[in-house]
């Protein structure tokens, strides 16, 4: 497989509803879309970096910089036997997993399309439908939160996750248990606490949560292990699992009992498969995280979620919760039983609406071996 040309676009899409975490609130999604062309076909990959370096150190601008100056020269015009060889070929570039993943995932889509098979098959997926859950951001009031929970349960979603932070934790959880009973419920702190909060966090044990996601800082593997000894609610790590190696260390340390997989965080599909397999070997269940992706990144997440150890519902929900319209048509829908069908067409198996992509584009650059860097700016 040869990648002849890369196109990068920086896009802006308005969110249907603002999304608030312990990092802050956003109303628009800014992201880079990669198009990789080769052998007369094209694959696409969505970069999950944000505008700000809060969830991770990467941003859209760092990803743009790293892809154009360091990743593109290593992949444009290069021959790969398989897309799993893309990530190792970028070894000299330290970190920047979101930037690497966007290009690697476009290469997987290109590969699957060239073979005329769905991406799920190329990845080793085994299911035709995946279980879908939702992530509900911090709201202005408990009443607003109750309204969101009621709507998502009515839509059929298989589990509810709410974002928490100091000052918005025990009360919203108690309210949900009180009003909605024993629904599958979990919380995500996005690293908003420290080990000093252990006694406070242990009060969540009374609510029979499926798990607490990323209570402490991303580098605090040891503190997560100490916290897990002081609470019965299983800890799930997200931000901390920046590589397969770190996952091995976190599992060995007892820092988590569950892992959230996001290909962007670990460097793409190849690394995600290795992480999935590592967790399966240690009997650690995994689920697929979400980064408010457009239909392109959402479809990629669905294909990966078809692997066997994704045994818990993920943060992979219907398009309409995020963007209306989405970049793809038809959008991704959830069935009344809370499942999403894995697309069966070649590659990602979704249709991008080029006019919508064009309309959302803030900036564009094309990189090919002849004009190794030529830029077309679009205002
Ligand atoms: O921590 O899982 C997270 C969104 C952006 C950044 C980080 C996270 C999230 C979500 C939303 O929880 C998941 C989604 O619905 O896409
Ligand atoms: Mg999370």
Briefly say what this structure is.
The protein has 379 residues and is of the alpha/beta class. It has helices at 60-75, 86-89, 97-115, 119-123, 142-155, 170-180, 198-202, 221-230, 244-253, 263-266, 269-281, 295-305, 354-360, and strands at 5-21, 24-38, 41-46, 129-131, 134-136, 160-163, 185-188, 212-213, 235-237, 258-261, 286-288, 339-341, 361-367, 374-376. The longest helix is centred in the N-terminal third of the chain and has 19 residues, at 97-115.
Description:
The chain has 379 residues and is α/β, with parallel strands linked by helices. Helix content is 34%, strand content 20%. The protein contains 13 helices and 14 strands. The chain has helices at residues 60-75, 86-89, 97-115, 119-123, 142-155, 170-180, 198-202, 221-230, 244-253, 263-266, 269-281, 295-305, 354-360; strands spanning 5-21, 24-38, 41-46, 129-131, 134-136, 160-163, 185-188, 212-213, 235-237, 258-261, 286-288, 339-341, 361-367, 374-376. The strands form 3 sheets. A 7-stranded parallel sheet has the order 5-6-7-8-9-10-11. The protein has a 5-stranded antiparallel sheet with strand order 3-2-1-13-14, with helices on both faces. α1 (60-75) packs across α3 and α9 (244-253) runs parallel beside α11. The longest helix has 19 residues, at 97-115. The protein is globular.
